[in-house]
Structure formats: C-alpha cells, structure tokens
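the two lines:
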Amino acid sequence: MAQVLVQSLHKAFPDGTVAVHELDLAIGDGELFVMLGPSGCGKTTTLRIVAGLEQQTSGRIMIGDEDVSARRPSERDIAMVFQFYALYPHMTCRDNMAFPLRAAGRPEAEVKRAVDEAARMLQLEPYLDRRPTRLSGGEQQRVALGRAMVRSPKAFLMDEPLTNLDAELRADMRVEVKHLQERLGTTMLYVTHDQVEAMALGHRIAILNQGRLEQLGTPMEVYDRPATMFAARFIGSPPMNLIEAEVSDGVLTANGGLAIKAPDGLARGAKLVAGVRPERLAISEAGDGVRGRIVSREALGDENIYVVDSPAGQLHVRTPPTVRFPEEHIVTVAHQGAAPPVYDPETEKAVGR
Amino acid sequence: MAVRRFKPSTALEFVLLAIFIVAMLFPVVWMLETALKEQRDIFHVPAKVFHFHVTLQHFKDVFASGSSVASGFRNSIIVGALSTIIATGFGVPAAWAYSRFDIKAKQDQLFFILSTRFMPPIVVVIPIFLMYRDLNLVNSVVGLILLYSAFNLPFTIWMMKGFVDEVPGEYEDAAMLDGYSRFQAFWKVTMPLLIPGIAATAVFALIFSWNEFVFAIFLTSNSAARTAPPAIAALVGDAPIDWGLIAASAMVFVVPVLLFAFLVRKHLVAGVTLGAVRR
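prediction for all of em together
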C-alpha cells in the first residue's frame, strides 16, 4: 500500500497529439481514486504511464516514496485489471492467478496458499481448474481481480474493468470491487467513462477532458458544484440544465421569466449560465416560472423525467412519480431550492461561490 | 424422416463436379499408373488403363544409390527444412515487432517487404547467379538455403503479423505488470498462442522451398546441390526417356508436402481464414 503521485505529467505522441497536459494528481494511501472522462480524454494514457506501459514525455510518477518514472512495469509493484480481462487463454484460472507469483519465483506452497485465499474471497473455487474461455464475463473479471490481488501490490490500476459486462452484472461487480478495496485497503486508481460508476465507487473523482484536469473532488462535490460547464454536462443523467440568464437583484432571470436564485457576489446585469440539476426544477399547471410544452416524458417507475421546450431552452425536469402530465401539455417550470452553480459563458468556468 | 426430394439443380451440380474431379485427378492417376507400369506397358497402344502388370521397380530406382533423384531428395529435405526454420526464426520476432511497436515509416517498410514478392524469380535469377558466382555459392546447398530463406522471410513476416495482430496486446501488458520483461512476455504468453499460426506459415514456406524450380535449375549444376525438382526435370534429357522413373520420382516428390499439409490441416484452415476470428 502506498500513495501514488502524478507530477506535471505530459504525454505527446509522435504524430503531435497531446494526450496528457501537465497533469498533477495525488492519490492517497488506501484511496479509491477514479479518473473519469470521455474517450480520448487521456485517462487511460495516464493509467498506462503510471503502470509503465507507456513512456511519458515529461513529468514524474511516484509510488510510495520512490520515483518509478524510469522503471519497467515489472519493477513498480503494481497490478492492473484490463477492460478485456487479459486472462491468459492457454492457462487455467488457477494458473492465471498464480502467474504473478510464479513469475516472481515464489515457492509453490506460498503460491497455492495465496491463490486459494484469493479464490475464497472472490468465490472462485469452483472455477479454478477451468480455462477462462469457459467462464462468463463476470467470472473472468473476478479471476482478473484475483490475479491482481495475490501479489498484494502497492496499488491496483483498473482500466474500465466493468465496461464489458452487462448492466446487471456491472452493478453487482461494482459492489464487489468497492467491498474488495475496503477489505484490502489497497490504493486503487480506477479509470472509467461511466459517471454512475465513478459516483458509486470513488472516494474522489478526477474529471479529465482533452488531457487536462477539469475538476477534482468527492462525488458529492462534483455533483453539486461542477467546476466547469464540461463537468456539469458530464456528471448526472439526465445532465444538468445549462440555462443562460441575466443577474438582477439576487435573481438570475432566464428567457420567458424563469427566475433562479442567484449566488452572492455576482455583478448586476452580467450574462451568465446557471447549472440547474433536473431535480431542482418543478413542474406545475400554473404559477410563477417559465411556460413550456412537454415534448417527452419518461416514466421510470420511481421517478418521471420530463423534457420541456421553453423560451429558456429545453429543460430536463425530474419529478416524483406522482407528478403526472401528458405529452404536449403546456406547463410552468420553476426553480426551487438553493442557488445553483453559475458559469461564465466565455471561460466555461464556475464564478461566484 | 423427411424424404430428400430430387432437384434438377442438384443433379447438375453433381454432374459438373464429377467432370471437374475427373479432369483434375486424371493426370495424377495417369502418373501413378505410369509409375507402376512396366516399361513396355507404358508405351503400349492403345493405353492399358486397367489390365497391366504392376511393378515397384521404378520406385526402387528412385532410391537406388547413386541415383541423381535420390540425392535430389536429400538436398531438397535439407534445403527445405533449414530455409523454413531460418525464415520462421527471423520472421516471427520481426512480425511481432511490426505488430506491437511504433516503428518509423512502418507502413512503408511493410510495403517494401511485400514488394520483394511482386517479381517473378526469373527476373532476378541472372543477377543472383552473378552474385553467387563471385561469392562461391553457385552449386552449393548453403546458397540455396540462404536464397530460399530470403524469399520466405517477407511472406512469413506478413502472414505472422496477421496472427500477432489477432492476439490482444493486453496479454503482454498484463504479463509485464506481473513481473516479466517485454521479451519474456512475448515468449511466455504470446508465443504459445501463435503456434497454430506458425505451423500454417511454416508449411507454406516449406511448400515454396520444396517446389522451387527456377533458382534451383540456374544455381545448381550437379547432384552435389541439385534439389529434387531440377533433378527430376533432368531425367527428360536422357535417351531413351525413362518415363516410369520420372513418374515414380514425381509421386515420391508429392508425398512429403501432402503429409505435412495433412498433419497441420486444422492450423492451415485457421491460417487461411485469417482475420475471421474476432475477440
């Protein structure tokens, strides 16, 4: 177990594309740290550089107190779990899990003990003598977790490990990974493009975009106060409503008369973008707010998601299941609750507090 | 049980296939008969297709000591085996490197490698002869081995690159994190998965070396280095022409390749259907 430091990491490929821009991250000892972003944001490249599978253009990787920037992957004492599991197909699950220990030349009795223990923890005992191709995706990924565990490495690197599983299994495995990380207390660097996974798993989340850090924070910080409009669009499903509005007397007013409570310290008359979560909007038959037409309704059982076409833009509204309006109905949408985060449309960064 | 209904199209297919099979197999059958006939039956008019006296004398002659064909077979085995081993030994690591690493102007290099196969051998046989004469490699087994290795290497690299591409690089990444060096990861993890591909590629390389005629006839002058194809062809020059011996030699010539292809047929199919397997 150890902390992992990524210091001014820069990666440019020979064709000129820059995958990672002067990135700084500090992952604490025993932390489950998630790197989240769309494909091509540099999260996997960063992970591969930490692993030693790619060479950085400049910058430093520290694991524990050691600078491992120039070391080979095998000398970094880390384990990685891949999206496609990367189990060796010509070996049984037992041999797959024993592989790192045998490669390190440990005595066979110790290998057996470690594999048996990992298998018990992951409930893999019935599958140990099968080849990976005979297992389901979830079982294969558990074997891959087992292979990562047996060596008790300083850190786990997870490269979208659940992406290839179907939705139900993914939720189960999410719980399993979280539980495992808690039990082992190992530092884990977890890469995903799935914001739900990031929210559910991470102690902290780093949102990356085009090789730069957009925001770093706990799941709730990232959800409540996205630091940039990119982060606002990326976290949450349906995403945050980004509503253009003008500041006046403590209120942000959008087209059509939608009034949104303004945070303190905004210049009067400034044109800004308010980031309003769908659950912070309410629909009613009449009253204060902006009038609009319901263009879509998703009844999800535990909640309803409405899309309302209004002068303030297309608004996503999340309501309790008891709030029922038919499509094409004309309704009023109003903001409720505390002041939302507000963004400068030029810089796309949050302003005020 | 459903009764299979007679369809005219099926009958037509059957007839066409039958004609095709007869046309394809007739020369082979004729060669086999010639190899088994006595000299006077070979020249008998009208030809004796069914009622002839079977003899194995021609086959005995093929392997008689001092026969040019016997030494040809010996040379063919040495040249074929060694050139295949050399081409595979260099070609597989090269293919791995081309598949896995960022190499400057990779596409151009691969095209250049492939381009050596564009030319028919006859185009370069004179310059190679002149070079070999200066290097003292004319009429030498070593010369043929080097030449066939060089000709098989591009083919091996191209075919093996396809197989290596099929093996996900993550296996090697995982092995490297698990404590192996780059080369160990290739050797211990990727290599076992490449065996079918290597078998298929090696058989194709072997068949090329075994069948090669043009270089062999230009670069060898006597039985010291002459391989089987030119040795058999040289039999035509004798008078009277011993057709029985020629036919028997040709039949023996076919056997190793058939046998090899049969042994690795499963891998050959995997090789021919290259790229059809997706993860």
